[in-house]
Each structure stands twice: as C-alpha cells, then as structure tokens.
Specification:
Elements: H1 8-17, H2 24-32, H3 36-51, E1 54-57, E2 60-63, H4 92-104, E3 109-112, H5 122-135, E4 140-143, H6 146-156, H7 160-170, E5 172-175, H8 185-192, H9 198-210, E6 214-221, H10 227-244, E7 247-254, H11 270-283, E8 289-293, H12 294-297, H13 299-305, E9 312-314, H14 322-325, H15 336-345, E10 349-352, E11 360-363, E12 366-369
Parallel strand pairs: 1-9, 1-10, 2-3, 3-4, 4-5, 5-6, 6-7, 7-8, 8-9
Antiparallel strand pairs: 11-12
Helix pairs in contact: 1-3, 2-10, 3-11, 4-5, 5-7, 6-7, 6-9
The structure holds ligand V47 and iron/sulfur cluster (SF4).
Length: about 375
C-alpha cells in the first residue's frame, strides 16, 4: 500500500486554509525547504483573501533632510560625516520647496527619514515636520524611525511619549517601518552596533500605537543574517501586532551592498526576494498588507511579487536616496501611468490609496479620499 502521509508543505497549506497560525518550525521549513512556487501560490491565496485582486499604490515623495549621521551602520551607503563633501542638510526654503514640489506632483504623502546630525538640536527635527505641514497641510507626513525617535529622546532628555507628542503637534501623521534591520542582538552588533536595539524599536512602536499613530514594519535581509534570525524577526513583529494592531504594512527590504562596508557580499537574487515576500505574507497573518518596494526590488521582481504575497506597490516615489546611494539602478521615480502598466500586466487592479489605505479619488494633481 502506498503511504498517504502529507508533505510538510501540505500540512502548512492546510493550516493556512483553516486560518491557523504558522509556527517557528513552519517558518523555517518555508524558508529552507519549501518549493518556491508552491510557497508563492499559498502566499497568493492569503494575499487574495485579504485584498482581493487589488494592488494598492500611493503617490508619495521622499525627503531625507540630512545625510549627516552619528552612527555608522555597515549596510548604509547614505550616511556622511560632518565634514564629508557629500554631506548636506536641508534649509527651511529647501523643505518648503520640496513640499510644494510634492503638491504639484499630486503627492498624498511625504516620507521623511534621515541621518542623526551631530549638531542639530531636537527643535530642528520638530521644525522640519512643522515646516512641511504648514506648507502643505493636506499632505500626510510619515516620518522618523524608532532609531530617530530614540535619538531625539536622548538629545532632548525627554521620554519617547513626549517626543511623539511634540512631533504629532507639529504635523506627524504616522511612522515608517525602517530601523528594524534584523532584531537578533548578535547580528545587530555586527551590522549596526550602538544604534537603538530591538527592544527600543518595539517600545517606540508600542508607544506610537498607544497614542493613535499607525506605523509600518520592515526587515532587512541578505547580509549576515540566517533563516532562523529572519523567522525570529517575523515572530516578534507578529507578537506586537497581536498586542496593538497598529502596524499597517510589512515591507521586506533586500540589502544593496554597493558603496557600503559590506560591499563584498552579493545582492540577494530575485528568487530569494520572492521567497522573503511569500514567507512574510504567510507568517504575518495579522498584517493586512505586504508591500513590494519596487525601488529596492526592481520593476520586474516587484511585478512578480504581486503574485507572491504582495498587495501594495510603493509608490510613485520621487527623490529616493538610501537605495540609490547603495547602487540601486531603478529610476528615482515612476509615473502613475507606469505604475498602472506594471500592476495591470501582473493581472491586478491598480487602486490608489493614501497612507492609511483609504481610496484616493484623483483628477490630475487634485485628490480626495473616501471618508473613514
Ligand atoms: O532602515 C539602508 C534600509 C531602511 C540600505 O514604511 C538599506 O513605507 C538595503 O524603511 N540596502 C529605510 N537597505 C527604508 C525604509 C522604508 C522604505 C520604503 C517604505 C517604507 C515604509 C520604509 O532602508 C533602513 C534600512 O533597513 N537600508 N541602507 C542598503 N544599503
Ligand atoms: Fe545613520 Fe540610518 Fe545610515 Fe544607520 S542606516 S548610518 S542610522 S542614516
């Protein structure tokens, strides 16, 4: 008689279809052994269950107010020393100009992150947000990672909650997912020693969620980490999401080695990118959205990702520097027409959203959102 024992992937598929949560062991199997296309098919089922055929995108611009940074993360090609000829810092006029450029392009969001400047006081960072908000109050400001909020709390000698309050008062609308890297302390010691650790990253998001801010979560893969570190990372994100429900989107980020201290490492392949997308979709059962950041993935892989778990294509991003300094060869921005083509070729329906995933109705650069 032939054996009818199910393969581990069949058993995982059964759990997924029954809405049961996947374990650490399931995650490791998906990472290391599962056939990529079977895994992708399963992630696609979850993606369609949660978001139907819709592929969300948003119209946003990036603003990195300074690249001067006290830290020296080994994966970072963006940072500069104070006296570096690459060093720059935005003036108030430049901030206003960038916000107005965003408005003219019809942006619904400005994504603001940057270096931690040796000489700038806390007030300067608040002023960045206030200036952008006062210039274009209709544009949502998604700004600062926990690494930055923790730094602000250190230089202002005030609790994280106070920092967040000041920022919200100035116009902060939500927080992006950066600074997460890999939570494992040993990997963190090797790639970004000294900057805020995993516990701080979670404490800041917990505080932000408690105060009514939504935020995103990322994972940086393809450097010194191992599959067990990646699964541990996802489990920790899932745990905080159970507690607060404040995360909107998960974004896996592939390490780009060019111009970094880890330039000897190869860039993760497209197949690894797709596996990371699918594993994230399956492990994070309590996240509504998984984002394919095309700037980092490249247009072709981002398109495929829409069939491997991703439901969101970020964005019409303009002025991206972090990945381009690290050798990304993608264009610095994409038009809405180009995004629509990418999405429709993947057999999905493009729907513009704002930062909080409300549908955007648009006529040129004028737009409104569905009420909550
Ligand atoms: O925290 C830095 C990563 C992150 C490199 O929330 C690098 O909507 C690869 O978090 N190679 C910042 N990655 C970007 C980020 C993000 C991007 C898009 C959308 C959202 C969102 C958030 O970029 C950093 C770090 O993990 N990073 N240098 C590099 N060389
Ligand atoms: Fe500074 Fe951020 Fe680069 Fe680290 S990743 S060196 S904190 S700019």
């Amino acid at each position: 008689m032939s054996s009818t024992l199910a393969s581990p992937l069949d058993a995982i598929a059964e759990k997924v279809r029954a809405g049961e949560r996947l374990s650490r062991e399931d995650g490791l199997y998906l990472e290391q052994k599962a056939d990529l296309h079977e895994l992708g098919r399963l992630a696609n089922e979850v993606r369609e269950r949660k978001n139907g055929n819709v592929a969300w995108y948003n119209t946003n611009i990036h603003l990195n107010p300074t690249n001067v940074c006290v830290y020296r993360c080994r994966f970072c090609a963006f940072r500069a020393d104070l006296k570096d000829e690459r060093a720059y810092t935005f003036t108030e006029d430049m901030l206003r100009e960038r916000a107005l450029e965003g408005r003219a392009a019809g942006a619904t969001e400005i994504h603001v992150v940057g270096g931690l400047h040796h000489r700038k006081k806390f007030d300067w960072y608040v002023h960045v947000i206030r200036t952008l908000h006062e210039t274009c109050p209709e544009i949502h400001i998604k700004a600062w990672t926990p690494v930055e909020i923790h730094w602000f709390s250190f230089i202002a000698k005030k609790p994280v909650e106070w920092v967040l309050e000041q920022m919200m008062d100035a116009g902060l609308g939500s927080m992006p997912g950066g600074g997460a890297e890999i939570f494992d302390p040993e990997v963190r010691r090797q790639i970004c020693e000294h900057k805020a650790d995993a516990d701080i990253w979670f404490d800041v998001h917990r505080a932000a969620h408690r105060m009514g801010l939504r935020s995103n979560a990322t994972m940086l893969y393809g450097h010194l980490e191992k599959p067990a570190h990646r699964i541990d990372h996802l489990l920790r994100l899932r745990e905080l999401q159970d507690e607060t429900g404040g995360f909107q989107t998960y974004i896996p980020l592939a390490f780009h080695p060019a111009n970094t201290e880890l330039a000897h490492l190869p860039r993760a392949s497209g197949l690894v990118d797709l596996r990371m997308m699918a594993v994230g979709r399956l492990m994070l059962d309590n996240f509504d959205h998984v984002k394919a950041y095309w700037i980092m993935l490249g247009e072709q892989t981002a398109q495929l990702a829409l069939r491997y778990g991703a439901d969101d294509l970020d964005g019409t991003v303009v002025h991206e520097l972090i990945y381009h300094d690290a050798g990304a060869e993608t264009p610095e921005g994409m038009t809405v027409a180009q995004l629509h083509r990418l999405i429709e070729e993947a057999g999905r329906e493009p729907v513009e959203r704002d930062t909080l995933y409300r549908r955007v109705h648009r006529s040129g650069s004028t737009w409104s959102v569905d009420p909550d």
